[in-house]
Design goal:
The chain has 303 residues and is α+β, with helices and mostly antiparallel strands. 47% of the residues lie in helices and 19% in strands. The strands form 4 sheets. The protein has a 4-stranded antiparallel beta sheet, with no helix packed on it. A hairpin with a 2-residue loop joins β10 and β11.
């Protein structure tokens, strides 16, 4: 405040006053408002300060005597500089009307009454539950008396519902809605199956490659054996049996199922996007088939 930055200084002092309403803080804020040119606010704070001092014990009242004298002198000087504004609205007052001044609620009880305001620009808004917000601005100088009539837009009248066209029956409330995407659930199912197949095939394939390294290290071709026969250590034979009897078939089937599921998902999504299950269309459902070394997926129904 001493540096002349009254806007920031007054705001900080007001925050302190809101937290702890001491007499000294109230007097300091009144002084800040006075120097900032907010004469109405300063007069209000001086009045509050003097009323608070009158309630203090004798010893504390004596400590505030000098400030109280300054407050009375300043209040008398500032009253002549206070601006007065009378706010009116159309009658009758619309129900639910809300009025604000500079972002704060303006009491409806002050309509038609000259109210002390600080010099400078002020922004009023009006709003009702059925009408949009209207904003109005007014400028007033120190010591001036002005009047502003706030605009209030009438509430918007909702037109009655249009009657149904004769001959068109309104569908019953409990009628189930048409399913715009009847194949979407099947696409999710086939997609899940495809993903599971690809993941399983990937894991089994990785294990198969690992076992191949074990077989290459533990098995070798011995002289005198057939060309397609290898001599393996116990661990190599176990790895070869696992690869041949389990991992290789599992990898083939899982990857086949995954590929079939992915293809089926794409087909279902395409068909579902182009054919939205018209009443003349027949039922469409997916079909799946899995063989020892292959898998397939397709659609049955009328397109």
């Amino acid at each position: 405040m001493k540096a002349g930055r009254f806007k920031i200084g007054c705001a900080l002092i007001k925050q302190s006053l809101d937290v702890d309403p001491r007499a000294g803080t109230m007097f300091t804020l009144a002084e800040c408002f006075s120097r900032a040119g907010k004469y109405a606010s300063a007069v209000e704070l001086y009045d509050r300060y003097l009323a608070l001092v009158d309630t203090l014990p004798a010893d504390q009242k004596e400590q505030q005597q000098a400030r109280a004298d300054v407050s009375r002198t300043e209040r008398t000087r500032l009253v002549a500089l206070v601006s007065w504004l009378t706010v009116t609205v159309p009658t009758p007052v619309p129900p639910g009307l809300v009025v604000t001044k500079d972002g704060e609620d303006f009491p409806l009880s002050l309509f038609g009454i000259a109210t002390a305001v600080d010099p400078g620009p002020h922004v009023f808004t009006t709003r009702t539950p059925e009408s949009p917000l209207i904003e109005q601005r007014i400028d007033i100088v120190e010591g001036e008396r002005k009047q502003i009539r706030l605009d209030v837009q009438p509430g918007l009248v909702t037109p009655p519902p249009m009657p149904l066209t004769p001959g068109i029956e309104e569908p019953p409330e409990d009628a189930p809605p048409d399913r715009a995407h009847p194949l979407r659930p099947w696409a999710y199912v086939s997609g899940s199956i495809g993903a599971a197949g690809l993941i399983t095939g990937g894991i089994a394939g990785g294990l198969l490659l690992a076992k191949r390294d074990t077989i290459n290290g533990q098995c070798r071709h011995e002289p005198g054996l057939a060309s397609n026969t290898l001599s393996c250590s116990p661990s190599g034979k176990a790895a070869a049996d696992l690869a041949q009897n389990t991992l290789a078939p599992l990898t083939t089937v899982a990857l086949s199922v995954g590929a079939a599921g992915a293809v089926a998902t794409i087909v279902l999504l395409i068909v579902d996007g182009t054919n939205k299950a018209s009443k003349s269309s027949g039922a469409i459902s997916p079909t799946f088939g899995v063989a020892p070394n292959a898998a397939a997926a397709g659609l049955t129904g009328a397109f």
